[in-house]
TrEMBL record:
Residues 137-156 are annotated as: Disordered. This is ATP-binding protein. Signal peptide: none annotated. GO terms for molecular function: ATP binding. It comes from Jatrophihabitans telluris. It comes from the Bacteria. Keywords: ATP-binding, Kinase, Nucleotide-binding, Serine/threonine-protein kinase, Transferase.
Length: 156
């Protein structure tokens, strides 16, 4: 995850998912549940779930997996924001928000992410691409007091 996104010393849970379409649903459920447990309202949980789904879906459709065959899904929750990042094996082309027409069957993922988040960005390094998005919570939450496992493996 981008150092500008993560504060020094913050714990970042990582969910390793298969480079496959069903992984979007697994990421969506995991992140939504993490926000719900922290006390986020339903609208914020739905927005975070949408962002997770779009970022994972885009990585599955448009990029190769990491060398392990997986994608890395990370998130950070503060009292008033959440940040979600998905890392893949390196984008094949530059990532931009496209202007999809009403007739296009794809091409809206990053436009949706940009519309529901406060900020988003892309980092490319060492043959990997990380797309991250930060959303603002409508009501303050209590981030987990104890650190969750640093890596969760899912076969989703």
């Amino acid at each position: 995850m981008d150092q500008a996104v993560v504060e020094e010393g913050e714990h970042v849970p990582t969910l390793w998912v298969r480079h496959a379409t069903p992984s979007a649903g697994l990421a969506r459920r995991s992140i939504s549940e993490a926000l719900r447990v922290a006390g986020a309202d339903e609208a914020d949980c739905l927005d975070a779930a949408l962002i997770a789904s779009e970022l994972v879906g885009n990585a599955v459709r448009h990029a190769p997996p990491l060398p392990s065959g997986h994608l890395s899904v990370e998130w950070v929750l503060t009292t008033d924001t959440y940040t979600i990042a998905v890392t893949d094996g390196g984008a094949i082309h530059e990532l931009t928000v496209s202007d999809a027409s009403v007739w296009d069957t794809s091409g809206r993922g990053l436009a949706i992410v940009a519309a529901v988040t406060e900020d988003w960005g892309v980092r490319n390094d060492d043959g990997r691409t990380t797309v991250w998005a930060r959303g603002r919570l409508s009501t303050p939450v209590t981030p987990p007091a104890s650190s969750p496992p640093s890596a969760l493996y899912a076969t989703g």
